[in-house]
Specification:
mainly alpha
């Protein structure tokens, strides 16, 4: 019996790394997709981060969350740097934004609501993409992933004060960019 099935039967069962990774995978993908703006690169980044986490299996479960987000963040930064290096040499200035390959799967039967949700998500994704990298990371980890300030600081490799500053600036920039949706 796998750990997830065991946990469903016995909620007091110990947390395993496999269960942790299964629980965090969807959120990690969204975080990576917003950071990389490309679906396949986001899948690669999350997969690489999960593989690297296997090396930390013996760590205490309370260390897994900041450790995973730190690994994923570094992988995203690496892919961004690699992409910008390749783009400088291989593409012209007009092609630097890349394409938006986002799957808009939604089971909602209302097409108008689907359209509104896609439009709102696109606006939010564009607003987040316009933020500087550190502000986008702070917002994603603190607000979307609900990590506390200390874990976010460890994941980002900076001080708690820097996290608060980046988050404050991100919120203000998003508030200005998304005023019409409030």
């Amino acid at each position: 019996m796998d750990a997830v099935a065991l946990a469903a039967i016995r909620p007091d069962a110990p947390v395993t790394l496999e269960r942790f990774l299964a629980d965090i995978s969807a959120r990690a993908f969204r975080f990576a997709e917003l950071g990389l703006r490309h679906r396949d690169d986001a899948l690669d980044a999350v997969q690489d981060a999960m593989i690297r986490m296997l090396g930390y299996r013996e760590r205490a479960p309370d260390e897994w969350t900041p450790l995973f987000w730190s690994i994923l963040r570094r992988r995203i930064v690496d892919l961004q740097r690699r992409r910008s290096f390749r783009l400088r040499w291989l593409q012209g200035a007009s092609d630097r934004d890349g394409d938006r390959d986002i799957d808009w799967a939604d089971g909602s039967p209302d097409p108008a609501r689907q359209h509104d949700q896609r439009q709102a998500y696109t606006r939010l994704a564009d607003a987040l993409a316009a933020l500087p990298r550190r502000q986008r990371e702070a917002f994603g980890l603190r607000v979307l992933e609900e990590l506390d300030v200390a874990d976010t600081a460890r994941a980002m490799g900076c001080s708690e004060g820097s996290v608060k500053t980046h988050l404050s600036r991100a919120r203000e920039a998003l508030r200005r960019q998304l005023e019409e949706f409030q």
